[in-house]
UniProtKB/TrEMBL annotation:
High-level lineage: Archaea, Methanobacteriati, Methanobacteriota, Stenosarchaea group, Halobacteria
Organism: Halomarina rubra
Key word Membrane present: yes
Keywords assigned by UniProt, alphabetized: Membrane, Transmembrane, Transmembrane helix
UniProt superkingdom: Archaea
Transmembrane segments: 20-37, 70-92, 113-137, 149-178
Record's protein name: Uncharacterized protein
Amino acid sequence: MRLTVPSVGEGRIDLDTGEVGMLAAGGFLGAALAGTTMQIFDQVAMLLTGSLVGLGSVGGGWLATLVFGVVLAVPFGAVVSGSINGFVNRVIVLSSQSDALQRVLVPLLNRSALAVTTSALGAGYGLVVGVGVYLVAAPVWATLAGSVAVASLVVPCLVGVVASVVYGATLGVVYGLLLEA
């Protein structure tokens, strides 16, 4: 069975059920680590996450984090499928032009080129998701709801962005490693 999703470029991307399962596993593990990051560094971030979907509790935040972690993994698969070749080519060109990058990247790429590449793409994806949710949607929601002063959300929102980067990098690493297996 194949899942067809819109791609970043032209056309559509087909993901088979194995790839969707790999994405779901990476999304769930990434979401668990993101949730743990929020739980440890600022529980208000977890409460905020739950509140954004109408579940105003820490448990609701965990539920929202885990569900959205799995759901948002599928678009990541479409982004990776549509852009990985260009990204790998850029990494190769950059590492050939800089001795410092060459010393850092070549050993990593020799061990697991796909996991390194998907991890970097995942971190970028997580940053975009985090900025969208915690720096755009959360302050707008707080303003419209009128229940929380936007200024009091600075630290929870920044923790949410960091947690989203943790989510994306973990999603990318797990997906890349499972693709290579």
